[in-house]
Task: structure prediction
Amino acid sequence: MQDARHTVPPMSLPPSVLPAPPLAAPGTNTGARPVLHLRRALIWRIVLIAVAVLLSLAAWEVRVLRQAATAELPATASLVAQLLNDDLARRTSSFDRIDIEVPLTPLERLGRRISFCVEVQHLMRDRPLAQSCLSEEPVTDAGRLLAPWLRAGAIGNAQATRLLQLQAGIRAGTIVVTPNWDSLGQMLWQRWLVLGGFALGFVGVVAAVALLVDRSLRPANEVLTALARLEGGDLSVRLPPFALSELRSIAGSFNRLAARWAATTARQRLLTERLLQVREEERRRLARELHDEMGQSLAALWAEAEVVSTLAGQSLPQLRPSADAMSRTTEHLLEGLQRVLSDLRPPALDRFGLAQALQALVAQPRRRAAQGDLHATLEIDGDTERIPDSMRVHVYRIVQEALTNAVRHGDAAQARVRLACTERQVSIEVTDNGSHLGVAVPVPGHGLLGMSERVSALGGTLDVAPCLPGGMRLAVTLPLPPLEETLA
Result:
């Protein structure tokens, strides 16, 4: 098929260009369910505050244990030294300084109340006399894992040293007392388990709060969903009557607004459709009058010019050039008139139907700004007879305007027109390889304003977008009436 010049701007049309957005079929959910950010934000804030509090409490427990371990150490060391020295004084004399034994049995009762580690060193020996760690309760693996971490962050002096003395204050060695880090790790683990229990309980509280918030904000969510559907073009959406009087008032106002909008849109659509119909009728009338009057007059004038040219060649040769010029001018006017008549009302549409008219349309030569013409092809899928007579001219005009845009604004070299007819809709797709001069947003004058008005009046949708690797894609979808209405 032949050339066509057309330019298609690269995006969906903005509201500033389109007089009204195309509306979806009533009852269709055109928008996704909006996310209610208030609920999520509230729950996340509660969770973050709770986590911060729990972490602060956990860190506080660590600090308290570290401080307690070193703060109580001197008193514990003094008590340990007193118990061991008293026991040693009962069992030995001042002459047993070399060979002494220091059992830790006297510390067992104290170890059941206080956790600590003790090491008894002889004054004259390298190896300790006794060493042990006493704990209030058994230590698990979790406590042992936490012990090195607690020891690494100890606050203050982590050991206390006292003298091991015989009778009469004779020095026999030293007693070194350190915190029982394994036992402290066990205590920390148990306290963290308690905090974990509080955390689990808090999770339940958050879940309950989430349910309450969700239930409380459900009307707001319904309002947002209805607004999204209304924004998407579903003018049949309505809000239910809510229990709260304030929300019920909002729902009533929303429903009245939607009803008025639907009525106004319907009136505008009917008015636009009527204007398009009147415009097509006026074009048909002008085409008929131009054909009947100016066409016949120009044809008669051309015939007279031919006669004058012939006679001038026989009797007055000097008039022959002027007569030939009149003939050529008249012939050029006739050709221009034929093009105007074809634009006003394509004769093939009335005589041969939509398919043949579109074939003739894409076959028309359209000169590009660059060298050559636009080469256009046509693909038809489905039965075009399914399209009502009143809609066929609109389909023709949409394709005509798209091809004109391709040449005029995109300087395209190739274009493809695809027409698909189903029982419910007719789809028009025009793609080209034009440059479109970097136009990112369509503006009035690109032929899209009139096309969008036409599509909106027919209850359809129009989408213009760039296509890869270059060019534009224009897609139009028009709903078809039920088959019985078409046959009627």
Q: What stands out?
A: Residues 245-315 form the longest helix (71 residues). DSSP finds twelve helices and nine strands in the chain.
